[in-house]
Amino acid sequence: MSTAIVTDSTSDIPASLREELGIFQIPVDLTLEDKTYLDGFDLSRNDFYTRLPTLKKLPTTAAPSSGRFQRLYGEIFDSGYTNIISIHAASTLSGIYNAARLASQEFKQVIKVVDSEQLSLGLGFQAIHAAKMVQQKKPPNEILDAIQSIKDRVYVFALLDTFEYIHRSGRVSWAKARLGSILNVKPIVELKTGLVLNRGLARARSKGIQFLGDSIRELGTLEYLAVLHTNALETGKRFIKEFSPPEIPEPLLVNVTTIIGTHVGPNGIGFAAVVK
Amino acid sequence: MLESYYEDLEKIGTSIQVGEGDGIYRMHIHVPTDKRYEPIDYTMTLGTISKVHIENLMIQVDSPAGGRREEPLKLAKVGPDDVALVTISPGPGFSRIFASLGAAAIVEGGQTMNPSTQEILAAFEDLPTDKIIILPNNKNILLAAKTAAEVSVKHVEVIPSLTVPQGLAAMLRLIPGQELADVAKDMNSALKEVESGEITTAVRDVEIDGISVKEGEIISLHNGKLVGSNKNLKKGCLTFLKTAKAEDLELITMFYGENISQEDAEKMAEFIQEKYPDQEVELQFGGQPHYQFIFSIE
Prior knowledge:
The structure holds 2 protein chains of 2 kinds. Chain A is α/β, with parallel strands linked by helices. Chain A is 39% helix and 26% strand. Chain A has helices spanning 15-21, 45-51, 66-78, 96-104, 120-135, 140-153, 164-169, 173-176, 205-219, 233-243, 258-264, and strands at 3-8, 24-26, 29-32, 35-38, 60-62, 83-88, 110-115, 154-159, 186-192, 195-202, 222-229, 252-255, 269-275. A 6-stranded mixed β-sheet of chain A has the order 10-9-8-13-11-12, with helices on both faces. Chain A has a 4-stranded parallel β-sheet with strand order 2-1-6-7, sandwiched between helices. In chain A, β6 (83-88), α4 (96-104) and β7 form a beta-alpha-beta unit. The longest helix of chain A is centred in the middle third of the chain and has 16 residues, at 120-135. Chain A starts with a strand and ends with a strand. Chain B has helices spanning 2-10, 38-44, 57-62, 64-70, 92-100, 117-125, 139-151, 164-171, 180-190, 233-243, 262-275; strands at residues 14-20, 25-30, 83-89, 105-108, 131-135, 155-158, 195-201, 206-208, 211-213, 218-222, 225-230, 251-256, 280-285, 291-297. Chain B is α/β, with parallel strands linked by helices. In chain B, α6 crosses α7 and α8 (164-171) packs across α9. The longest helix of chain B has 14 residues, at 262-275. Chain B starts with a helix and ends with a strand. Chain B is 35% helix and 26% strand. Chain A binds chain B through residues 174, 178, 180-185, 198-207, and chain B through 74, 96-97, 99-101, 168-169, 172-173, 175-176, 186, 193, 249-251, 253, 282, 284, 298.
């Protein structure tokens, strides 16, 4: 009996790590100026974030169809796996989870579809941890318990460079209401149980970054840490140098998926951390 | 007699105010265009009119420059469980900024126009919540704010913001859904995160802290303390920025007052940007009286 771990491209797991752990990934669609791209293929993140501020129309994102999930699940079973754990982006923010669940109902084999209630490495660490347990030959029920445990211990914070994108995306009510902000302010957000929460506003970028660093310290000892950025590589590197805890001196450094970037804009910085 | 005068005027228009002098009255009213002479005709039946001034408010509303600032403030609507933020604002520009950041009530007031305890109380007593935070934004208003907090039956926290930039820094920590005590704690810690500057013209000769000031000179205050007196505005701004070590910081925000034109304020912002090329300079309309500029740097 062997378990396959499936996730989607909003998990932001670096390709090398994904291959090493044997994680299957389904890409999300991104439509940019009437052309549709598969997230992670045929459009580089650097290219995307450079173009983003110049676009008249915000790009749109779409969950993969349940048909595409069915094909992937079918291929996985054909290659000899006996069951699947499929972990996806927060169902409150995306239709990916629902598409996966619909597809899972077409199979008689066991497919457990999990709502991570997270995005980026907040989701990614759930899949990574699950895949590690598969390598250790742990049974599916233990893996599912461990995923729930990670979910309870994961913290995702970010400093966005501007209100503009999250406001325009219209998916977050408090940001939608904040059109009137006259001062140039940078929102600090937390992603928790599928909700995007406002954790304050910063005016100077350095103050916002300090807030993020302090938040990491307040969390205590960490099991996993990733520094997330939307095309702000240098800021990410400096952040790691300044705020990485001793137990994780070299966290993952990830240029966040275009699917999330569309809604938060370039030059954002943040982290995903799992507390020990 | 005054009462019936009011009653009759109410049939003609709105926003009625009557000022009483020694046998002289001054009356103000808003009326539709077709009724523009009615208040005059009516008042003439009661006495002699010495002076009339008519202004077309529609033009004021339509003009893009003036009209923008005339828009009514959109204050945050609070529910019974929300923390309501009450802030003292020294000018219309600041009021708009405070409103955009989520203030539930704004009391006008500042350096030479301190609101009374009553005025502060009146601003929040009718709000549908018991959780109130007051930002006085001026050391002369702190006491009135504290008295208002003591007198009120509501749970009121006064954050001792002594300048408007401190008040703005505190406001950024307003997080919907948080407990009053937590918000107050966050806001208190935010006060020291900004450097405040005030640039104004001296109204008399004085010597404070070893700095001698001549009437008409430009004086610079850093966090409320006099740090220099200069012959012109440029030097006044630079003296403050140097004292506050702006070169080590990231963002210089300049709020220009009612006594300087937008054009002159823009020129000054350009000048400051040239002098501080590594810092971000942001210019905003504050609309405060007396102070050409209020600076916030962080």
